């Protein structure tokens, strides 16, 4: 972020809150990691605390900034990421569209049933609009609308695809009940402040038997080559496994019809940090009863990744992936001690 721009901004004081599990309301949360999480130039330099609910296995930031702080952070710092999207050429865009066609659209196509010319699609967090562009191309008779808080990304979507974009927070928009046939939510659920409230609003906005498509990172499929701050970020308030995301959908009266897991090795991305969960769910009339799930499975898997990541860092294999500032105090002290010993040896 531009330094002059930062100086002119008045950042509200950071207020923290400790939260219970939103899924089962349990307060028995095991903290498995505390780590600073920010990028160079960020004004908000927060240490995040990652916890696992010992009742249901949901992973989330259990001590986080207030919603006011988060909203300010997104608008003033995070959304400037889209500045680089202005320079993406048509070939890069077409490559992204092709990937969406081969994965996302291929996954949902069998479930799309168009009975009339009033088929309505909404993409929450549409970004620069590639997914909406593909859906418009494949279903030309459908009415498409995007929800995107970033003004830059919204303008790119309008320019490239001529699709209506509402430049607001989804939770603040007044939407009609039973209005949409298909709602897509890709790479968004891990960012929301309360996934239960978020999904309840989606449920209300869908028509009877309406379809919800969700794509989210998989906390149980992490690339072992990746450093901790690349996975555990301040902007990701929740970290889902396929089991916990299914539980949340069941609780909010969605019936899951299809599921597909993409390994991080399959994802066509330079970073390929985590695998992906793809889920299709239909608006249901009743809450689906959840089955028990031992939280230890998730806790053990994450703890194992943390140990592997730290060991690899000390071997020097991923030292270039993140700054010393992002390490915990104990690791920093260890590095300083090692450096002092090497200097003395010389």
UniProtKB/TrEMBL annotation:
The cross-references to PANTHER family, in alphabetical order and at most eight, read: METHYLTRANSFERASE TYPE 11, TRANS-ACONITATE 2-METHYLTRANSFERASE-RELATED
Q: Which Gene3D superfamilies match?
A: Vaccinia Virus protein VP39
Q: What is this protein called?
A: Methyltransferase type 11 domain-containing protein
Read off the CDD domains from this record. Answer: AdoMet_MTases
């Amino acid at each position: 972020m531009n330094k002059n721009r930062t100086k002119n901004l008045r950042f509200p004081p950071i207020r923290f809150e400790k939260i219970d599990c939103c899924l089962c309301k349990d307060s028995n949360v095991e903290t498995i990691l505390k780590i600073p999480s920010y990028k160079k130039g960020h004004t908000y330099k927060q240490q995040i605390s990652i916890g696992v609910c010992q009742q249901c296995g949901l992973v989330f930031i259990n001590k986080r900034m207030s919603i006011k702080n988060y909203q300010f952070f997104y608008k003033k710092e995070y959304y400037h990421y889209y500045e680089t999207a202005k320079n993406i050429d048509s070939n890069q865009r077409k490559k992204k569209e092709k990937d969406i066609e081969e994965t996302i659209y291929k996954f949902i196509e069998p479930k799309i049933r168009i009975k009339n010319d009033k088929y309505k699609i909404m993409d929450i967090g549409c970004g620069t609009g590639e997914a909406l562009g593909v859906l418009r191309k494949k279903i030309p008779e459908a009415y498409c609308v995007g929800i995107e808080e970033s003004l830059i990304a919204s303008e790119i979507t309008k320019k490239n695809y001529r699709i209506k974009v509402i430049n607001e927070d989804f939770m603040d928009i007044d939407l009609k009940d039973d209005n949409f046939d298909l709602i897509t939510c890709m790479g968004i659920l891990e960012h929301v402040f309360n996934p239960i409230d978020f999904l309840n609003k989606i449920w209300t906005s869908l028509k009877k038997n309406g379809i919800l498509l969700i794509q989210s990172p998989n906390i149980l499929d992490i690339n072992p080559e990746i450093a901790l701050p690349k996975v555990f970020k301040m902007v990701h308030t929740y970290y889902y496994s396929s089991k916990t995301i299914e539980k949340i959908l069941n609780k909010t009266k969605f019936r899951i019809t299809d599921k597909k897991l993409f390994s991080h090795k399959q994802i066509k991305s330079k970073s390929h940090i985590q695998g992906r969960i793809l889920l299709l769910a239909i608006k249901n009339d009743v809450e689906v009863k959840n089955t028990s799930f031992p939280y230890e499975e998730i806790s053990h898997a994450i703890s194992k990744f943390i140990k592997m990541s730290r060991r690899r860092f000390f071997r020097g294999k991923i030292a270039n992936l993140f700054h010393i500032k992002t390490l915990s105090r104990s690791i920093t002290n260890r590095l300083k001690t090692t450096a002092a010993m090497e200097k003395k040896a010389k």
